[in-house]
Amino acid sequence: MSKKAASIIAGQIRSKPSSVLGLATGSTPLGTYKELIKMHRKEGLDFSRVTTFNLDEYYGLGPDHPQSYHRFMEENFFSKINAKKRRVHIPDGLTKNVGAFCLRYEEMIKQSGGVDIQLLGIGRDGHLGFNEPGSSLGSRTRVKTLTEETVRDNARFFSGQEKVPKLAITMGVGTILDAKKLLLIASGQVKAEAVRDSVEGPVTSSVTASALQLHPHVTCVLDEPASRLLAQKYYYMYVEKVAETIEAEARI
Ligand code: GLP
User: How far is the CA of 192 from the centre of ligand 1 (A)?
Assistant: First the structure.
């Protein structure tokens, strides 16, 4: 899953070295970052002209807080590639004026030319970024209150559930849908229901990842357990095979 996701992102960077990447945190993208780092070291994958925007950050955590998404990205990705600091953007969890900051974040994304490819994980309740159930499908970058389930799920990274911030700054669903391409990754049976509801369920703000169905260019990279509940799973695999055959024939 990670290799496939990394190869899609690397393909984007190779075809447009000044690509704008939307990045995600959580345990799922870790493997993708590792693969991209490997490609940087072994194949010279060049991030020097790339611009990045992260989906979200805990509200109230500064960049040096060990559980902040700033720190996560620095430790797991940015310190190991050659991206330029001035082109790396992550929401500021310590902003004094959150409304103005969120508007500025949206503006910066627009000024960059828009996100070329947005990497996404998925929460167990089907959230993207921190767009918890009930988030408007047209929402923009703003502060969201985390559900108790999300707080519990993320407690494993903190020294106790009470230490997990209750609020986060997150790109909105509308912000995410503005990206030119979306790349959702999910692994493990724990994500199977969220994946099924997002890919095959009705489009609803109760499962914000179901908004992916409204986007013209989405790729879902799933491992076997995460795809287990998809009713059309074998059709999707067949579609991929047909596409590969056509590509192979075109190369002959
Ligand atoms: C958090 C992040 C999401 C991520 C989710 C799942 O809520 N804000 O972007 O998709 O966690 O994380 P994991 O990949 O660890 O299951």
Answer: 14
